[in-house]
Structures are given as C-alpha cells and as structure tokens.
Amino acid sequence: MVADADGKTSPVISLVAGGIAGGVESACTYPFEFAKTRVQLYGHEGIRNPFMVVAKVAREEGLRALYKGCSTLVVGSIGKDAVRFVAFDSIRSLFTDPVTQQSSTAQSIGAGMLTGVVASTTIVTPSERIKTALIDDARTSRRFRSPWHCIAVLWREQGALRALYSGYATTTLKQVGTTGFRLGSYAALKDWERGHGIAVNHPVTSFANGAVAGTLTTLATQPFDTVKTKAQQARAVGTMECVRIIYAEDGVRGFWRGTVMRLGRTVMAGGILFTANEQAVKLLKTIFG
To answer: How far is residue 112's CA from residue 95's CA, in Å, rounded to a whole number?
Structure first.
C-alpha cells in the first residue's frame, strides 16, 4: 500500500511510517471513537448525530471524559498500524506482478485480510479490549484508575486470556474485513490512478482515497464492530450472548448501531491515516535515503 510504483519501500520505513500515521490518526479522531463506543454500549439515547453526542458528553462530563481510554487507543494504533503497513506491503509483494509492480484488486484485498489476522492477534484485540473496558467503566463503576490498573484488575478477576483477548473472534473477523477492504481498496485505487496518470502521492489524492476506503470499510464491517464492542465491555460477556442481546434490543438493524458515529470517525480517519503515512514515508526516505 505504501510502496512506490517501483515497489521499493523498505520494511523498516513501512513500520515506522505506519506507526506515526496510526498515532496521528487516533489522536485526532478519538472523540468520535468514544461517541461510537458509547452508542454501541448504551444505545443512541435519542441522539444520532456524532457531533451532538460529543457535545453532550463534553457538557455533562467534561472535555477530559471524551479522551477516556485515548492513551490505550493511541498506543494500540501505533503498534497496529505499524504492523498493518509493514505486513501488508510484505504480503502483497508476494502477489505483485514483477513487471508492472501491481496486483489485482482481489489479491490486494486478500493480502489485507491476512494482514488483519496478524494485526488482531498481535495488538488490536488487547488494545481494543482495554479501551472498551475503560469507556464502559467511566459510565458505570469508575473503578479503573489507568489502563495498567484496568489490565491488572481484569487479569485478576477474569484471567489473562479473557482480560486481554475477550472478543478475539469478532475482533479478528472485523480486522479481516476492515483491513482487507481498507488497505485493499486503497491499493486498488492507487493502482488505477497510476494507470491513468494521476499523481497518487499528492496529499489531496491520498486523503480522498483514504476517505473512500474508510467509508466502504465501515458499511461492510459494522456488524462485527458492534458485536465486538458489546463483547469487550468491562463485565465478561460471551460473543453469542452479545449477538442475542443486540438482536433482542433492536433486531437486525441493531447490528449497524453506531454506523453514523463510526463514519464520523472513519471517513476522516482514513484520509488522515493514509495522508500521514504517505508524507511520513517521504520524510523518512529523505532523511535515511
């Protein structure tokens, strides 16, 4: 995805640039992630506009409340996107045509899906689990003093596996879908633009491509995200129990609960993430050659 037309972007540059992009993106868009998670845990409460949810929380609970769990997400995003970018470039290179340095849309999406499994297992599930538990706790018992305290309490009460990997199945399914669609569609857009003489590394082009990729990804994978969020709240809840609860509360449409909230973040996040990544790659190549 971040590789140039000649396919030559080193794994180290992909790793560092991906980490920088992930940190920038998550820090910029976290209030919308907070709003989306709140809606998935407790319902819309009569408000569907993500900006209104953010304003309501800021008014009633203070601005600091909007960043509850943010440090966990930022750290997780740095690791997640570092792994995603370097893994995707490495996996996709196996399918790339040696002459054109391009791969088909199906191959790009397939490489993204494999990348999703790697990212979920190594860093996404643990970071998402703690972030969700912190947001849930801020609304309920308020017993977690920090991310590390949250890990310690959940580890003691639920054991290491459930403390860090609760919701692993749905998180991995979501990552397979989101990473496959997001990185695959972004790479496919860049290949198409290269073939039509469009400057693919211009910041405006990168932002637009990322926003389109983010929109497609959100609409396709929202049910996985809704179930995953429900499964990762502070109290232990099984995946199938979450499915039954969501269906009982809102029917099939309940699985798309929080879609508008998530779009409020992912459209901007996609643009920011890929633009930051492309610019970080340029900077790193300038510095290190």
So the answer is: 12
Which has the closest alpha carbon to 36: 274, 266, 236, 278? 266
Non-local (6+) Cβ contacts of 50 within 8 A are 32, 35, 36, 260, 261, 264, 265
Cβ 54 vs Cβ 66: under 8 Å:
yes
Q: Are 72 and 36 in contact (CB under 8 A)?
A: no
**pTM of this structure:** 0.67
- Residue by residue, pLDDT tens for the chain (289 residues) are 445 555 567 888 988 999 999 999 988 888 888 877 777 777 656 666 777 878 888 888 888 888 887 887 788 789 888 988 889 888 888 888 777 777 788 888 899 899 999 989 988 899 888 888 888 888 777 888 888 999 999 999 999 998 899 889 888 988 898 888 888 888 888 888 888 888 887 899 999 999 999 888 888 888 888 888 887 776 767 788 889 998 998 899 888 887 877 787 788 888 999 999 999 998 998 888 6
